[in-house]
Amino acid sequence: MLTSAEILKSAHHTLNLESESLKKLSDSLDDSFVQAVLAINETKGRVIITGMGKSGHVGRKISASLASLGTTAYFVHPGEASHGDLGMIEPNDIVIALSNSGEAPELSDIIAFCRRFNIKLIGMTGRRDSTLGRQSDIVLCLPSIQEACPFGLAPTTSTTLMMALGDALAIALLRLHNFSKDEYKLRHPGGKLGKMMLTVADLMHKGEELPLVAPDTIMSEALLEMSGKGFGCLGIVDKEGKFCGVFTDGDLRRAMAPDLLTKTIREVMTRTPKTTTAQTLAIDALRIMNTTGKGITSLFVLDNEKPVGLLHMHDCLRAGVA
User: How far apart are CA 3 and CA 270, in angstroms?
Assistant: First the structure.
């Protein structure tokens, strides 16, 4: 029975060993990595990832990362490939095969298929002189490392390096493609990640929904517009349509006086309100509302000083942005 101290010691040993190996991998990168990135970028087809066992699990993750960051990628199981799934690989594709030993027998049919049809093969392996290493057009060779497994058998450190190398490929390709946040958002519409990528433009009210009045509008008329639109605020625009102030429910409470209804909105409006833009992430706009200390529940959206929309806090909450 291990003591608490021994359990922690084991964990520290594993993590330290793997972090040291990651540094070793970083230091070992050479022109082969550049060649792999450029070859993937130049391929007219798709990126096919394959691997057996733990390498296959890592391959699935690399495939998913590439696809989510703008590089079309699929995982093909080498065992299934031998029974018909080779038909999923086309001449214009590029294949990345993962095997630390480079001798996984299940990869043999995929390797032979790539050679027969002149499909470019990138091998990710710990042995350059292995079957996979010799047959690959480009070899991403892992440095010599020690597995965290005390028997030196279970893939641990080696799969960590493969995972990290896959991430490095995905991010290098992202930068090469100038992949944007908008493109990323299109690939992540669901879950919390998708909500975090929503912009103000996705949620804002616009057009006839906007509560807008001129600076010389009498308060009795201004309040009718504010009540009718139902946002608890008014935007004030000058003759050129430029935004020059805001009036809110809070301003109304502070301005209450017997002569309020005879004043113009110019006399009671807030002249330097918080605003946002259509391109701002909704979560950032919500943060502005929450951190001003004035109980702001809405923001006018400006483009070239003119209001083009209105974002209410309830719009963010309904969309799951929080």
Answer: 65
Distances (CA, A) of 3 to 7, 55, 102, 221: 6, 33, 38, 76
> Angle at CA 152, nearest 5°, toward 148 and 156?
40
Burial zone of 240 (CB within 10 Å; 0-12 exposed, 13-18 middle, 19+ buried): exposed
Going by pLDDT thresholds of 50, 70 and 90, the confidence category of residue 320 is confident
DSSP 3-state of 119: coil
Average of per-residue pLDDT values in the chain: 91
CATH class belonging to 200-318: alpha beta
Within 8 A by CB and 6+ apart from 124, the residues are 96, 97, 98, 99, 140, 142, 162, 165, 166
Of residues 171 and 196, more confidently modeled = 171
First to last CA, the chain: 45
pLDDT band at 195 (very low <50, low <70, confident <90, very high): low
Question: Tokens for 170?
Answer: 């995905």
Angle at 298 (CA atoms; ends 295, 299), nearest 5 degrees: 115
Ordered by start, the domain boundaries in the chain are 4-179, 200-318
For the ranges 69-78, 238-247, 291-300, the lowest mean pLDDT is seen at 291-300
Distance separating alpha carbons of residues 117 and 138, to the nearest angstrom: 16
pLDDT of residue 185: 61
| CATH superfamily to which 4-179 belongs | Glucose-6-phosphate isomerase like protein; domain 1 (3.40.50.10490)
Quote the radius of gyration of the chain (alpha carbons, Å).
30
Token pair of 37, please? Answer: 């990135």
Question: What confidence tens digit (pLDDT) does each residue in 245-263 have?
Answer: 999 988 898 889 989 899 9
- State how beta strands 233-237 and 243-248 pair: antiparallel
- The total of other beta-carbon atoms located within 10 Å of residue 108's CB is 15
**For 183, phi and psi rounded to 5 degrees?**
-65, -40
Q: Is 193 helix (H, G, I), strand (E, B) or coil?
A: helix
Q: Which pair of tokens denotes residue 6?
A: 């021994």
